[in-house]
């Protein structure tokens, strides 16, 4: 079933891109192939560098344009020049084929490209018959086919579920013990401030020693 979808999408998308090469004058194929081998690979072109007419013609490819390599971009730009000369019906059909190409994953594009290359080796009458079968599909059938391929792509690459993020454990930290005066903790002797009036403001010397209180024991240096 998947191969049938890819074959139809290959006819829709890669036949459109391949038609740019198929409609070019072929002439002698051997010199053309040799010249193509010597031709430098065109670099990719940013979407902003396209002309307004090219942007209108290639609008379904805008979201994936940065993923298309230079040679493939060149083919799409050749198709864009044909888009302006096509009828409204043909323009709509070209956009449908571009939309079919956009929804393919890289792996599906590879398979579709291989299918398209294989179909090019089929005799022209069979190829025209298969192409006509796709062209006769009603629009809703094409939309349904594209939706099935898109759903298959999403199922093949489901969005990864993020693991449950648990908050870090809360560790109770005991309060730090109240510390005393840093000077006392370092073993320093407490500073004793003299009472007011015992210091001479000019000399900063004691004016007089205070009288000991009654019953106070004198210091050892003053004992007889």
Description:
The protein is an all-alpha fold and 224 residues long. It has a domain at 2-24 and 54-156. 51% of the residues lie in helices and 0% in strands. It has helices at 2-22, 29-38, 52-57, 70-83, 88-102, 106-120, 124-135, 139-156, 182-185. Helix 1 (2-22) packs across helix 6 (106-120). The longest helix has 21 residues, at 2-22. It is elongated, with a radius of gyration of 45 Å.
Short overview:
The protein has 224 residues and is mostly helical. It has helices spanning 2-22, 29-38, 52-57, 70-83, 88-102, 106-120, 124-135, 139-156, 182-185.
What are its keywords?
224 residues; mainly alpha; 9 helices
What is the topology?
Blueprint: H1 2-22, H2 29-38, H3 52-57, H4 70-83, H5 88-102, H6 106-120, H7 124-135, H8 139-156, H9 182-185
How is the main sheet built?
none
Number of strands: 0
Oligomeric form: single chain
Structure classification: mainly alpha
Give the rounded overall mean pLDDT.
Answer: 69
Instruction: Give the amount of beta strand, in percent.
Output: under 5%
Query: From N to C, what is the helix and strand string?
Result: HHHHHHHHH
Total helical segments: 9
Report the C-alpha radius of gyration, rounded.
45 Å
Range of helix content: 40-55%
- The N- and C-terminal alpha carbons lie at a distance of 123 Å
Poorly predicted sequence stretches spanning 5 or more consecutive residues = 20-30, 161-172
Overall form: elongated
